[in-house]
Amino acid sequence: MLSVRLVLRKFKGCGVASLVVLAGLLTCVTAMPQEAMSTQNGSGAQEPQRQDSAPVLRQPPADAAEDTAQGQDVGAGSNYDPAMFQRPMAKDQLAFLGQFAGQPSDTLYRDKQFRKLIKSFVPDCTFHYGSDKSLTDALDEVIKGSKEPVLIRQGRYVLLSGRMGPYLSGKGFLWIDMQEGIGLGGFYFHPTNGEPTPSVNLFSRQVQKEALLELSELPPAFVEDEIEWSRAERVPPLTTRYFLTGSNKKILLEHDEEYCSPAFSLRNEDCRQMDADASDIDVDAASYLEQTHHSTNATAWMITDAQQIAWVHVRDSTCGGLIDPLGCHVRMTRERTHVIAHAPPPRPVRPVGHPPIHR
Q1: How many domains does the chain have?
Q2: How far apart are CA 356 and CA 330, in angstroms?
Q3: What is the pLDDT of residues 116-135, one digit of tens each?
Q4: Burial class (CB in 10 A: 0-12, 13-18, 19+), 63
Q5: Are 246 and 120 in contact (CB under 8 A)?
Q6: For 196, which of 28, 112, 240, 343 could close a Cys bridge (C-beta 3.0–4.6 Å)?
Q7: Does a structural domain hold residue 312?
Q8: Is 220 helix (H, G, I), strand (E, B) or coil?
């Protein structure tokens, strides 16, 4: 079993040992504080370390952990596989990023060399932010003009961001690992087109996955920085999450944080309710994605599904009389989410032909 460290900062408080159940064994993994974001490029002074705690993710199977590339500090509970990212960017094309540490994000975003670079990892898809536009155009609206400093952590992880969205509370960021040549980003806003709202849309053109993603499948360093960005931008911890892939599909980014882990320092009744609420958010998002065929610019209002209503009745009836109704609720809802997410696409409806005309 892989036993390495993943620190995801979400709530304040010192991280403590998290319990992970795997194949009937109890493994204690001590969460250690990570280096805080710095506007230095790795060679200068660092900011004091933050003491934010790290959410614990559901542990992957032992065989999945063993398949993870050797030498990657993927963290306890991480299910990250570097092979998920295709066509990495060349290191020599990324070295110039270091000179932008501490400069306004707008400066880097407008740089001609960077504008060419983002084509390697920002999906070439239509995105509905107020109206249909390219995802790049939507990012233009929230990052151009941003005075937020370019952050470079450990001399390799670059993050630029902006909250300049003129409507719907639009804000976003771009993230690059200069060592591995991978790039991702995120876009948060309050949709008014009928989908669950608000929502976070993470993305990477280098990822081609077709079904769903769990947070623990993304690079641990990215997850850490994304959570720090979300906390700074006051993104609600329980928010509908999607992932836009290189195949121009919107898929579910499932909540796999364990809110009842010691890292969250929540009361038992509160954390269990958060687990239940997160599962409800995911199943609703999965249902919406199924209805809109995973379109990146869907504008349809969510349809009340008779089959889904029947399933909710069965779930509530099944779990209502148990000693642990919330645990049953979470388990059944997560199972339902995976059934929806992995369902085959609907067959196209063939037009009914007109009967032959006899003269």
Answers
A1: 1
A2: 55
A3: 999 999 999 999 999 999 99
A4: exposed
A5: no
A6: 240
A7: yes
A8: helix
